[in-house]
Amino acid sequence: MRTTSWVSACVLVMTVSAGCAPKGGTGGSGGGGGDPAHLDPPPSGQGFQFGTPEFAVPSGDEEQDCYFFQVSDLAKSGGLDPTQPINLHHIQVAQRIGSHHMNIFRVKTIVNLGPAGGLVQKGSNGMGQCFVSSNWADWPLVANSQQEGDVDWTYPDGVANVFQPDEWLMLQTHFVNASTQQTPAEGEVNVNFWTIPNSEVTAEMGTIFATKQSIRICESNPTPTFSGSCQINSPSPVNIIGANGHFHSRGKEFDMYTWDGTSITTPPASDRYYQSLEWNEPPMLHSPQLDQTVQANGGVFYSCSFQWQEPPVSIGCAGLNAFDQKKYMTPSADLDCCYTFGPQVDMNEHCNAFVYYYPKQDDVNCF
Amino acid sequence: MRSPAVCLLALAAAACSSPSAPPDPCTVGVLGDATQSIVLQAIALDPNMTPFTVASGDSVTLAFPPQGGRVIFAGVRATNLDGCGVQVEGVIRDLTTHQVRLDSRTVNLSPTGDGWGESDPTDVSTFANVPVCPNEWSATNLYGTPYQLELAVTDRGGRTATQTLQVTPECSEPAHAAECLCICKGGYVLGEVCADTSDGGADAGDEGGGDGGT
Questions:
Q1: I want to staple B32 with a disulfide (CB 3.0 to 4.6 A). Which of A149, B115, B165, B176 is the partner?
Q2: A220 and A260 in one domain?
Q3: Nearest CB to A362 within list B84, B136, B206
Q4: What is the rounded average pLDDT for all residues in chain B?
């Protein structure tokens, strides 16, 4: 594993541009100066700030970049003991307009993407390892946001997401400047982690990342629904305190339900705790408004419904079919102007559920 | 039946004939005799991605899908139903705890010319991608142990049929066996370092891996 510190890497790689170097805090939160990506960092000893420098997103492009940070470096930058765990209790995210998503993951099994390959790994228009989701298939979710990029969430009293000093985090940004979404200026993301001392932690937070990737929204099958489940292996009830769903512009309805772990039909409407009917403005529910109890050994049932649409003229069915053939090796006879799984918003679709709960049993990824 | 006069009046108001419904983009139509009960057979893909009819007691492959993890590609062969917009659900159930993992999806069945239709073996999205591993849900190994496989189809008219079978999942893809045995074992923890993941890992990162972000 690379030993170069994050701070020095930033100096070397990005010449300490705005948003790269950790900022010594003077306190406070919230944006200022008219820059939607601006956040005042936490005061020294209470947390730290990390993020990206400004970067260009040319017209017609989608930029997806992966930034790696070691927890001990981040702790040190915030005046915290770099040898001790970090107890994340309050997270703030601020982004420029044009963000499609921002995800933070804990780095686990390295496939073709990791800090040794560079602390900043950029990708454009579907190309590059930062676009290959199987590279982070077993990396637990830490935090996420979508188009409406601002997040300001304090977990319930005593709840913390705990990170060990030697852990690495990956911050992944996706900015879009294409037909269905635009980035009018440079992209930028900043994140604040506010911490609490060990003595105040009463429960760890766990996360669920569930995704349907074997999906096709096709002209001859124009209104498909995909459903799945994800179990929290807990002998006691847990509380879901954060949830949001993610799909692209063919997405019509995203539902999440609490689930008993044994039923195979869609749970009753009374168990639905999340619904998104707007692909570009999905609700980002979290505590205190969201606090939903899941029974022991239960979990989450989720469902994505789509409506096929004519693709943008610049892509056309020919473009969708070409992608389908190249990426999925679909035989010519099966080409059907299908939107398939992938990151590019004009020609691909998603069905991803992000869920946060406590007390943690395991972090859970469901494919 | 409306009189010509009424029709003429109505035509003048551009409302005589009801607006024609857009043509159904699915051309599969009815398979078999829709007045009869749906008949359903469970099929699955073997390690060579070849479909076979599943019988109780059979082994089924824990397959390495584009999205990662391991799934059972569980499909259907069915007759006496509308073959368009069929909801296919596949479920794996722990026989001891009754816990399940499931996948449900809307597909058009491929006609086989004999009044039946089936999941298209060249398109894994027409099979339920039953998500078995990583094993974050069962205390026992998910391979070499009998589990219950449940298949259901529901057509656009709401008619349904189910089949339940006992199967034994196996890590039977030689190129991916080591990672399969690790991430499907009882007690696996997400992110756990597997002893040898070079098989699955290498494959997961190349063009065969599902790309995407979120």
A1: B115
A2: yes
A3: B136
A4: 86
